[in-house]
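Hi F.,

I've been meaning to write this up properly since the lab meeting, where we talked about keeping a consistent format for the predictions we share between groups. The idea is simple: the sequence comes first, exactly as it goes in, then the C-alpha cells exactly as they come out, then a line or two of notes. No screenshots and no reformatting. I'm using this chain as the first example so we have something concrete to point to.
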Amino acid sequence: REDAIMQRMYGISMKDFDALLEFQGGGCAICSKPIDSSRRRMNIDHDHKTGKVRGILCSGCNTGLGHLGDNVAGLQRAIAYLQNPPFKYALAR
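Output, unedited:
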C-alpha cells in the first residue's frame, strides 16, 4: 500500500526510496540527521513545478526550504541575512 502511494505521489518505489536513502548515508540530504525509514512519505522532497524527486529530507529541512520559497533566491537572501544582519548596521549610526 505505501509503495502504491509513493509511486502515485512521487513516481518512485519503496526500492527507489531505500536506494536514495542509502546513497544519502541514511540521513537528511541537507543536515545529515538520521531519517527514520518508517516515515518515508513525509520526507520525500520534490520540485513543485516538475514533480521530480530531489532527495529525502528531515521534516525540519523540508519545512525550512518551503518557508524560504523553495528556491535558490530565497536561500541566498537567508544567507545574505546571516552574513550581514541589519541589527549591527542599524545600531552603528
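Notes:
DSSP finds five helices and two strands in the chain.
The chain has a mean pLDDT of 88.

If this format works for you, I'll send the rest the same way.

G.
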